[in-house]
């Protein structure tokens, strides 16, 4: 098991947590000089390069620090991949090097005597159906196996991306590893045999940690507006951006459970809710001054009241770290970790004083400050 990192902070966390540098890869459309320097100085496994400029910078740093960090080129493959929630290749993108430009990048690398160790591809994400996953990976293996002859490229390393999906909406099931394990291993072994690669990487994405996180919000009021009933909650877009973003994009709510406050200490055992067919219809919203702060539209539930607690499932990935917790000054919430039967607080809720210290520029008290309102009145 290893780690993907995309920032200097993530790399520092991985290293300080004891992850072997040989099991760390660096990906992402932009990598700062600081991050690339940390990568080569710590001899991490590989950096997946996404542009000519990044290739030249990494090669220079690698030479300067006499690093063994492998250079992979992220290829944006022109292949037909289906069954995922989002296609990540074969179209214009900030990710990777377009297939039509790949030969030119390889030619430049040869001209500059830059050794390319392998290729990184990430064709799709969140595949739930085992047959679709295997069909996609089989197509990808055929594509990758043809690269050495097609581009005169010796493949020593391959990062084949991920696509392992978890369910977000009612009616979905998590990708069953038992259903794909045998055929996936067969395809993997065949790919290694055909290409001669020494190291093959998969990216787990949210598959491991996504199901490990739950967000708890409290209903603060119920509001009727024309023909809609709103349940206004104390957290939303600012706490778990993924749920609200997909609620708006897909017009489907995440898995959400109403929970008894007495059971908040056993959230780790709370199963995903079954599909509701009867009940009241609500639009669940957060506290922010934006119409996009929608947790769930057309959420069917037993009657909700102020004071009720709701649990949003599957937010272990892309939750707090991808959310605008400081929007309108609400701050980030407290975080807790379930360890067996115990609940341990691992992060404090932001206080007003803490947020002021970090983000408010204090005016000198003895100096008169211009009034915005008086300026407007003067105009």
From TrEMBL:
One of its GO terms (biological process) is lysine biosynthetic process via diaminopimelate. GO terms for molecular function: diaminopimelate decarboxylase activity. Residues 211-316 form the Orn/DAP/Arg decarboxylase 2 C-terminal domain. Its cofactor is pyridoxal 5'-phosphate. It comes from the Bacteria. The keyword Lyase does not apply. Residues 2-210 form the Orn/DAP/Arg decarboxylase 2 N-terminal domain. InterPro entries: Ala_racemase/Decarboxylase_C, De-COase2_C, De-COase2_N, PLP-binding_barrel. Keywords: Pyridoxal phosphate. Transmembrane segments: none annotated. PANTHER family: DIAMINOPIMELATE DECARBOXYLASE, GROUP IV DECARBOXYLASE. This is Orn/DAP/Arg decarboxylase 2. It comes from Grimontia indica.
């Amino acid at each position: 098991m290893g780690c993907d990192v995309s920032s200097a902070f993530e790399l520092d966390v991985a290293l300080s947590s004891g992850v072997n540098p040989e099991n760390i890869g660096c990906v992402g459309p932009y990598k700062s000089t600081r991050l690339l320097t940390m990568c080569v100085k710590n001899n991490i496994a590989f950096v997946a390069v996404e542009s000519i400029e990044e290739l030249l910078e990494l090669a220079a740093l690698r030479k300067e620090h006499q690093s063994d960090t492998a250079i992979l080129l992220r290829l944006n493959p022109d292949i037909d991949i289906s069954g995922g929630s989002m296609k990540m290749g074969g179209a214009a993108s900030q990710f990777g090097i377009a297939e039509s430009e790949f030969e030119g990048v390889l030619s430049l690398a040869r001209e500059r005597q830059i050794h390319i160790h392998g290729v990184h591809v990430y064709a799709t994400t969140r595949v739930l159906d085992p047959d679709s996953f295997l069909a996609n990976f089989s197509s990808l293996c055929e594509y990758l196996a043809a690269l050495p002859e097609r581009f005169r490229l010796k493949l020593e390393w391959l990062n084949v991306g991920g696509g392992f999906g978890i369910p977000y909406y009612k009616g979905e099931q998590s990708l069953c590893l038992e259903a794909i394990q045998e055929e996936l291993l067969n395809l993997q072994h065949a790919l290694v045999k055909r290409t001669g690669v020494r190291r093959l990487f998969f990216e787990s994405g949210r598959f491991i940690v996504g199901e490990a996180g739950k967000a708890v919000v409290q209903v603060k009021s119920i509001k009727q507006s024309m023909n809609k009933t709103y349940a206004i909650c104390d957290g939303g877009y600012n706490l778990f951006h993924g749920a609200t973003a997909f609620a708006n994009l897909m017009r489907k709510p995440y898995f959400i459970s109403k929970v008894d406050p007495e059971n908040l200490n056993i959230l780790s055992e709370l199963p995903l809710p079954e599909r509701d067919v009867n009940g009241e219809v609500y639009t669940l919203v957060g506290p922010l001054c934006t119409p996009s702060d929608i947790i769930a539209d057309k959420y069917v539930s037993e009657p909700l009241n102020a004071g009720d607690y709701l649990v949003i499932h599957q937010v272990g990935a892309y939750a707090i770290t991808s959310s605008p917790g400081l929007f309108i000054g609400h701050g980030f919430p407290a975080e807790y970790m379930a360890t067996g039967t115990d609940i341990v607080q691992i992060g404090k809720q932001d206080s007003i004083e803490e947020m002021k210290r970090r983000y408010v520029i204090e005016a000198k008290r003895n100096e008169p400050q211009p009034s915005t309102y008086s300026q407007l009145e003067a105009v």
